[in-house]
Structures are given as structure tokens and as C-alpha cells.
Specification:
By secondary structure, this protein is of the alpha+beta class. It has helices spanning 21-32, 62-66, 102-109, 133-138, 177-188, 213-216, 221-227, and strands at residues 9-15, 37-39, 48-55, 70-78, 80-82, 91-94, 114-118, 127-128, 131-132, 148-161, 164-171, 192-202, 205-206, 211-212, 229-230. Strands 1, 2, 3, 4, 7, 10, 11, 12, 13, 14 and 15 form an 11-stranded mixed beta sheet that branches. Strands 5-6 form a two-stranded antiparallel sheet. Strands 8-9 form a two-stranded antiparallel sheet.
């Protein structure tokens, strides 16, 4: 019979910019001296927002939670393309931004909706023969990538002040939002890249209920126990 403790469950974190998802896992594990901690869906280092950690026996649920649909918001900067499709990459092209309205931008987003295949960017953690693509990209190599089947439920820009537009997108797991940003830039004819990204939701988990990492690292074990979603209550999040 499965032995469940008070620390077996999920911890909902609001990830800060500047650290990897693995960094968050490592810091929480070390601070509370936990044996098993995992996360349910990687965020790029400069992305912020919802990161669901699973502790102890709940790590066996990580694949199930990772498969959930996601909601993000962020900003696209038009006029500059980068090799990683986001602000971390090297600029590969710069063009004047044509006159655009919010309505014109949203006319372009309709073509992104629905079922589709998306090719992962070279600067990504996808592995080819066991080697992450970003390591090959650092060596200047570009290899053929297998397109992935994704679905975008909604995609809208909510504000635009040249050259930056703010958006909200709901999509399936495995969707590279920075690829979407890059492709929108191509559609409007001047290029673009992802400036910021924040995950708002993953399945039934919401960033409104998340705890800041800096606060978590001030807690003791008793405070952690009070804020962990117990293993037996995680069924309602599936």
C-alpha cells in the first residue's frame, strides 16, 4: 500500500526570470532537504509564471500534469528577428516596422488557430540522438527537426505600441510560443521575436494561487506543509 506523508503533493510556484525550471527544483529540494522533487513543464530561463512542482510520491503524477493545456501572456517585439526567436538570441535581421493597428495584428492571428504541426526551434531542449538542440546550435549546427502536432485554442493581441504588442494565447503542451512570435513577425513582413513570456495556467493550476520562489525559500517545513496541495487532493487537478 502506498505510504503518503504530509509533504507528498504539489507546490505551485511563481517562477522568476533568470533561472531555469531545474534551478527552481534544485533550490526547493536543497532548502527543505527533500529526496524527490520534479516539475510539470519547463519554462525558459527568462520566462516567468506558473511552475508546478511535485514532491515525494506526487512525482509519479508529473507526466499527467505535464500533458495539460497551457495559457500564456507575453510581448512580441517587431522589427528584429533572432536565432532563438526570443530576446536571448543573436539578432539575425532588422527591418522597419510597417504601420499596423491592433485590428490588423489580430487579423493575422486567426491563421494560427487550430490543429497544426510546429517545428521546434534549433535553440531548444528537444533532443536529437540524445543531444539537446541548443548544444548543436551553439556549435553553429542546424539539423532537421521533426514537426510536432499542436493545437492553439486562442491567440489575441490585447495592446500595441510600436514596436511591442502584448498577447494572450491558449495552447496544448509542447507549443513553442516563441516560434509563434517569430512566425507572426514574418507574416507582417518585418520579423519579430518574443520579448517576454509568462505562464498563467496549466490545466486546473493557476498562477493566481502560486507562491513566489523567494518567499518559499524563507519558509520552514511547517509552512511548506501548509502550502502543499496534498497528494489525495490532486485528483481534482487532473
Amino acid at each position: 500500500m502506498l505510504q503518503i506523508s504530509a509533504l507528498d503533493g504539489a507546490l505551485v510556484v511563481d517562477k522568476p526570470a533568470g533561472c531555469t525550471s531545474h534551478d527552481v527544483v534544485d533550490r526547493v529540494r536543497r532548502h527543505f532537504q527533500l529526496k524527490k522533487v520534479g516539475h510539470c513543464g519547463t519554462l525558459d530561463p527568462n520566462a516567468t509564471g506558473l511552475l508546478v512542482l511535485v514532491l515525494g510520491q506526487a512525482t509519479r503524477l508529473s507526466e499527467k500534469f505535464m500533458a495539460a493545456d497551457k495559457v500564456y501572456e507575453g510581448d512580441v517585439k517587431f522589427g528584429e528577428s533572432t536565432d532563438s526567436y526570443d530576446i536571448d538570441g543573436e539578432i539575425t535581421g532588422a527591418l522597419p516596422v510597417p504601420p499596423m493597428t491592433l485590428e490588423q495584428l489580430n487579423a493575422e492571428t486567426t491563421s494560427f488557430l487550430g490543429d497544426q504541426y510546429q517545428t521546434p526551434p534549433m535553440v531548444s531542449a528537444v533532443k536529437i540522438k540524445g543531444v539537446p538542440l541548443y548544444k548543436l546550435a551553439r556549435k553553429g549546427q542546424e539539423v532537421e527537426r521533426q514537426p510536432r502536432f499542436i493545437h492553439i485554442y486562442s491567440f489575441r493581441f490585447t495592446s500595441y505600441e510600436e514596436p511591442v504588442a502584448h498577447f494572450r494565447i491558449a495552447c496544448t503542451k509542447g507549443t513553442y510560443v516563441r516560434t509563434v512570435a517569430h512566425e507572426v513577425g514574418q507574416k507582417v513582413g518585418c520579423g519579430g521575436h518574443l520579448l517576454t513570456l509568462r505562464r498563467l495556467a496549466s490545466g486546473k493550476f493557476d498562477v493566481a494561487n502560486a507562491h513566489r520562489l523567494e518567499d518559499i525559500l524563507q519558509w520552514d517545513e511547517a509552512e511548506l506543509t501548509r502550502n502543499v496541495i496534498p497528494f489525495l487532493k490532486l485528483k481534482q487537478y487532473e
